[in-house]
Design a protein that fits this description.
Blueprint lengths: L4 H5 L10 E5 L9 E5 L4 E6 L2 E6 L2 E4 L13 E5 L4 E8 L7 E8 L4 E4 L12 E5 L4 E5 L2 E2 L2 E2 L3 E4 L4 E4 L8 E6 L4 E6 L7 E5 L4 E3 L9 E9 L4 E8 L6 E5 L4 E4 L12 E5 L4 E5 L11 E5 L4 E6 L6 E9 L4 E8 L4 E8 L2 E4 L10 E5 L4 E5 L12 E4 L4 E3 L13 E5 L4 E8 L7 E8 L4 E4 L12 E5 L4 E11 L2 E11 L4 E4 L12 E5 L4 E5 L2 E6 L2 E6 L3 E4 L4 E4 L10 E4 L4 E4 L5 E5 L3 E5 L4 E2 L2 E2 L1 E4 L7 E7 L6 E16 L2 E15 L6 E6 L10 E9 L7 E3 L2 E5 L3
Antiparallel strand pairs: 1-52, 2-3, 3-4, 4-5, 6-7, 7-8, 8-9, 10-11, 11-14, 12-13, 14-15, 16-17, 17-18, 18-19, 20-21, 21-22, 22-23, 24-25, 25-26, 26-27, 28-29, 29-30, 30-31, 32-33, 33-34, 34-35, 36-37, 37-38, 38-39, 40-41, 41-42, 42-43, 44-45, 45-48, 46-47, 48-49, 50-51, 51-52, 53-63, 54-55, ...
Length: about 725
């Protein structure tokens, strides 16, 4: 996990019982998410629809918390200097009918706390917020509701909100701390041809009479580059599609002439990265493109590409397979923005797009056990011209195959590998060319050609059925699918087995609900086929709606058994990722179903000196991913140590603290910065056998003000997992 932790874990522990659960990992940054810089902990913090994240170096780390604000957009986030906390306010949940919010939350680097306040700004979204270092306040200005901008001014002092009563009211804009002038600056597009530059002096809004400001425009970003004592504006002038970079030095605005421009990027959000003293631009996009998949760094002269920000492109019809020799999950999907196909491979919980052109979108893939490549059948173009081509992916390139025979053009066939017999089986689908009816033919791919077979029994016509190879019983299991009664779709709930020569109907006493597009995958640990998710179509005259299932079922070769818990609902293509020992639901923000989810749990109490108890936090210890331990509230410059242990004890040290770590252990020496913060980070080994292993961490730092002469943190128990 951290340096030498691989040796520590090899000392051997009994693995815990395998408890399976779902977890979704992903982050999509856009202009409706909120970012702020923690200048003490030297982190950029983000809160969005997928929780709390922190930028450590070039890696965004998921920060697990026991509680958090509800998922929302348009909320404001800023750092409060003296309390060393992030302050989050307002926003709106993800529904056009959802109410606007006016709750206040603070984040101390460990957890979120909802603050109970008697007076607060009214509910709103898109408020401008920034910290005022000189006056130790967080300033909030305006925001919108259904009836337009609010235009009011508020300050947060760490405990309460106070409404301010300035005589002047600027137009809506964005805020940033202006270090040279020791004020908070507001940049607003206004009603003229140029932006308006205002500043807050603690009592009044004052418009600065500067001779030149950035041109008025749209989709602009505004932020403070603390390392260079500059304000930066990135804006698309009205009537153009080319963004401009401007800087404020405390006296004058100047346009910069970078030679490199961020690709397909306008708007977005600036966030300062105090860990590496750089200003990052995140998230913006042109109307015809998805958000930029990486941050961009501004150095005052030019732009350069920065750390990647997981930001999935909107995709549809994702088909997936496991490349067994390469131990990769391969996904093929249709990009809704560019109307083109995309190929991805799963690495460390994130989909990485693969280069090069490929087949048409909407194809179905399975792994070819003869050629040892990923096989794709069918697809359709952006104008929905369907195909019955056959393609092969070798991990680097797609190549079009030329079999003598092939199935007819269709949509949503079931394509599944039969590794025992060295075949790929294709069944059914929807005839989208002539009859617009489901099909029930069976085709076999032998690595070179397609062959139509005529078994004695065959399932009724259907499209979108779920199927997987049951490795424990050496047969293919097929369930459900979409049938048609006239033009009306309906779901099926029958279970069929393919034994290599014939389809056999199974008749269990209990079955999952009727539907199509379930996830179906063999889980080798329990020798079961797992089914989850799926949808059912409903029609009543002209009315049409869909039910999305979130249930989990298991097939043991004889019958179906409902399992406790829920799965991500809806369409649920799935594969088993043997490298991690988990099931992967192949959305572009993947969900994982597997034993021993990664967890972080606090144990005991800390103690310390003038700054209070020494604190220790940890990011989520997911296999194959980066993680971080953070020590807070140590004396400035104090040396300390982070101790990791497989054992556990409870030895009283005095002052309410206990020694919790035990042998065997490993140590990492550290030194707190001027804000009392230190960090240790590495990566968790990509080893499925480590899932469920627990490691106890505890931090110690010299502290003359502490009764023990040193501060002791509470313990942090991390469970390695998915």
């Amino acid at each position: 996990m951290l340096a030498r932790l691989g040796l520590l874990l090899l000392l051997g522990t009994a693995l815990p019982a395998q408890t399976w659960s779902w977890a979704t990992r992903g982050m999509s940054f856009d202009s409706n998410d909120a970012f702020a810089a923690d200048l003490v902990r030297e982190r950029s913090v983000a809160f969005g629809r997928f929780g709390t994240w922190e930028l450590a170096g070039d890696t965004w780390l998921f920060r697990p918390t026991s509680r958090a604000p509800s998922s929302r957009h348009g909320h404001a986030l800023a750092w409060h200097p003296s309390s060393r906390e992030m302050v989050l306010f307002g926003g709106r949940e993800f529904s056009s009918s959802a109410p606007y919010l006016n709750d206040t939350w603070t984040f101390d680097g460990t957890d979120w706390t909802q603050r109970s306040v008697s007076v607060a700004p009214s509910a709103r979204r898109l408020a401008a917020m920034a910290h005022d270092l000189l006056r130790d306040r967080v300033l909030l200005f305006s925001g919108t509701r259904d009836n337009g901008p609010l235009g009011d001014t508020w300050e947060w002092d760490g405990q309460r909100w106070q409404q301010m009563t300035p005589r002047n009211r600027p137009p809506d804009g964005k805020l940033a701390p202006d270090l040279p002038r020791q004020r908070v600056a507001l940049l607003a597009t206004g009603a003229g041809s140029s932006c308006e530059h205002w500043e807050w002096d603690g009592v009044e809004w004052l418009r600065l009479p500067v001779p030149a400001t950035p041109p008025a425009g749209f989709g602009f970003a505004f932020g403070a580059d603390f390392a260079r004592s500059r304000l930066v504006c990135w804006i698309v002038p009205t009537g153009t599609l080319t963004a401009q970079a401007w800087e404020w030095d405390g006296t004058t605005w100047s346009q910069r002439q970078p030679t490199v421009q961020p690709t397909s990027l306008r708007g977005g959000t600036f966030v300062y990265d105090p860990g590496r003293a750089r200003l990052l631009l995140l998230g913006g996009s042109l109307a015809s493109t998805p958000p930029s998949p990486r941050a961009w760094i501004w150095d005052g002269v030019d732009w350069r590409a920065g750390p990647a920000t997981p930001s999935p492109t909107p995709m549809q019809h994702i088909s997936a397979a496991v490349d067994w020799p390469r131990q990769r999950v391969v996904a093929f999907a249709h990009d809704l923005v560019s109307q083109s196909s995309k190929t991805f491979e799963l690495e460390g919980g994130v989909w990485r797009e693969q280069p090069g052109p490929g087949p048409l979108g909407y194809g179905e893939i399975a792994f070819d056990p003869i050629q040892l490549e990923t096989l794709l059948f069918g697809g359709s173009s952006q104008v929905f011209v369907d195909s019955n081509d056959t393609w092969s992916w070798n991990g680097s390139n797609w190549r079009l195959l030329q079999p003598a025979n092939r199935p007819s053009v269709r949509r949503d066939p079931t394509v599944v590998a039969d590794p025992v017999r060295g075949r790929v089986v294709l069944f059914g689908g929807l005839d989208w060319v002539s009859t617009f009816a489901p099909l029930q033919d069976t085709w076999i791919w032998d690595g070179f050609d397609w062959t139509l077979v005529n078994p004695a029994n065959t399932p009724p016509p259907r499209a979108g059925a779920a199927a997987t190879f049951d490795d424990g019983r050496g047969e293919i299991v097929l369930f459900g699918g979409e049938g048609r009664s006239g033009s009306q779709p309906f779901g099926r709930a029958d279970t069929w087995i393919w034994n290599g020569a014939n389809w056999l109907l199974r008749q269990p006493t209990t079955s999952p609900p009727a539907g199509s597009r379930h996830g179906l995958v063999f889980e080798p640990g329990r020798q079961r086929v797992v089914l989850f998710g799926g949808i059912e179509h409903h029609t009543n005259g002209p009315s049409y709606w869909i039910t999305e299932y979130d249930t989990i079922w298991e097939w043991d070769g004889v019958g179906w058994t409902p399992m406790p818990g829920t799965s991500p609902p809806g369409r649920a293509r799935a594969v088993y990722d043997a490298r991690f020992g988990r099931i992967v639901k192949t959305a572009l923000t993947p969900s994982f179903f597997g034993p021993a989810p990664a967890e972080v749990v606090g144990i005991g109490n800390g103690c310390g000196g003038a700054r209070g108890p020494l604190q220790l936090t940890a990011s989520l210890p997911a296999l194959g991913a980066a993680m971080q331990f953070d020590v807070l509230q140590a004396p400035a410059g104090a040396p300390g140590v982070l101790v990791l242990s497989l054992g556990r004890q409870n030895v009283a040290l005095g002052a309410g603290c206990s020694l919790l770590v035990d042998e065997p252990m490993t140590r990492f020496w550290l030194r707190a910065n001027s804000g009392g913060f230190a960090t240790v980070g590495r990566s968790v080994p990509l080893r499925p056998d480590l899932a469920g292993v627990q490691v106890l961490a505890q931090a110690f730092a010299l502290d003359p003000a502490a009764s023990l002469g040193f501060g002791v943190s509470a313990g942090v128990l991390v469970t390695l997992g998915h």
